[in-house]
Backbone:
């Protein structure tokens, strides 16, 4: 069987279990990657609850690794209800931003302490391990994982996942072109002879963004806002879909999944966003594939 | 000292250093700066956060454990102009936080402030 991934949660910010939203899905960030008997999970939003219910029913391996991009609510709030963690049959490794294994454990377990939750991680029965990776690279079975920093409040990671000769990059939260707009706002405060260096800074920053995704086979990326909403929420750490699709084209991505959908957007609005993205791709003469990440969709890598 | 992978930012600081006559040691990576610090203690360190290899915060934590060098004033200069990043930098004991783009006036003011303090200590 080819490696594959499945979307269990595709929303950003908060869950949106409304009738009008369920074509795309209402759960927050969670993607499961499977290669043979190896399971790798990205993020523990509310989507991880359904994943956990599914995992305990499977007659499969009982080991997995869960990667966190960061610890904002929408990425961790499903973890207290993750059934495998409460089963002694399971072995679970956790990784995410943190100065040490103990620091990662603290960041994850604090959300389950009183007065926020009735059951603490001490009640977990699974064999848990918190992983350190000082050089940012590690393996889980046949998955090779490389973490990198992205532009979002606090330390936030993106992950490049290499498996079966293919690359998938998972970036749930990332504000593209933030420096460019910061420079444009303050351009007049700089002297004439400095303007060239400001342009160079914008170009360098763009190159560094492209380098993260260059020639990626599949990119799963934040596309939370419309251009109109982005103008009101600049600095919240998320991208406008126009920037996402243009960056993916510039980086030579093979296939883009629009992800971390705004919870206020219903199915019709996300379909319209998808159409706009396809239009940009056509106008730029690109052959990149572009899809909406939908809860439940399974994609062969 | 400037630690920043951005060549344009290093060039900007170099122009300013020439104009304002201060010595600049510019490093493109944190590991390069770590080596340089073995031989040279700067009056002030300007430090980017998001860099390939070792990030600015990891470098800062290492600097803070290096005896007398640990007291060197550190100014974060970053494109990540978010309240949570300002708070994280403050928790790590940085002296100042500047969001990019940083003007020559802002840099010069901090060089003057901290170099004067350093001279007063000497």
Residues:
């Amino acid at each position: 069987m080819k490696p594959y991934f499945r979307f269990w949660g595709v929303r950003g910010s908060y869950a949106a279990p409304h009738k009008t939203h369920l074509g795309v899905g209402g759960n927050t960030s969670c993607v499961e990657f499977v290669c043979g008997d190896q399971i790798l999970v990205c993020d523990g939003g509310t989507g991880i609850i359904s994943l956990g219910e599914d995992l305990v029913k499977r007659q499969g391996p009982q080991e997995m690794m869960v990667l966190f991009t960061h610890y904002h609510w929408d990425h961790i709030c499903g973890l207290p209800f993750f059934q495998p963690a409460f089963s002694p049959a399971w072995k679970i490794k956790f990784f995410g931003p943190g100065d040490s294994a103990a620091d990662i454990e603290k960041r994850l377990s604090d959300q389950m302490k009183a007065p926020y939750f009735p059951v603490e991680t001490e009640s977990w029965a699974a064999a848990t391990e918190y992983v350190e990776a000082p050089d940012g690279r590690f393996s889980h079975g046949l998955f090779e994982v490389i973490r990198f920093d992205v532009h979002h409040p606090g330390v936030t990671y993106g992950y490049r996942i290499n498996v079966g000769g293919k690359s998938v990059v998972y970036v749930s939260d990332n504000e593209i072109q933030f420096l460019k707009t910061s420079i444009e706002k303050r351009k007049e405060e700089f002297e004439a002879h400095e303007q060239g260096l400001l342009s160079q800074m914008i170009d360098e920053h763009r190159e560094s963004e492209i380098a993260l995704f260059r020639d990626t086979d599949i990119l799963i990326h934040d596309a939370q806002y419309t251009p109109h909403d982005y103008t009101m929420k600049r600095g919240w750490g998320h991208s406008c879909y126009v920037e996402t699709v243009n960056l993916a084209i510039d980086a030579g991505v093979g296939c883009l999944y629009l992800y971390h959908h705004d919870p206020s957007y219903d199915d019709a609005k996300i379909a319209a966003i998808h159409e706009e993205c396809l239009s940009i791709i056509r106008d730029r003469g690109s052959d990149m594939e572009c899809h909406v990440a939908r809860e439940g969709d399974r994609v062969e890598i | 000292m400037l630690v920043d992978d951005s060549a344009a930012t290093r060039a900007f600081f170099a122009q300013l250093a020439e104009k304002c006559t201060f010595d600049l040691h510019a490093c493109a990576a944190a590991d390069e700066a770590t080596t340089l610090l073995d031989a040279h203690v700067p009056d002030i360190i300007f430090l980017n956060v998001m860099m390939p290899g070792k990030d600015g915060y990891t470098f800062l934590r290492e600097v803070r454990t290096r005896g007398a060098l640990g007291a060197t004033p550190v100014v974060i200069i970053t494109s990540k102009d978010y309240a949570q990043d300002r708070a994280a930098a403050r928790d790590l004991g940085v002296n100042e936080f500047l969001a990019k783009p940083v003007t020559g006036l802002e840099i010069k003011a901090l060089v003057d402030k901290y170099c004067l303090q350093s001279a007063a200590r000497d």
Notes: The longest strand of chain A covers residues 143-149. Chain A has a mean pLDDT of 96.
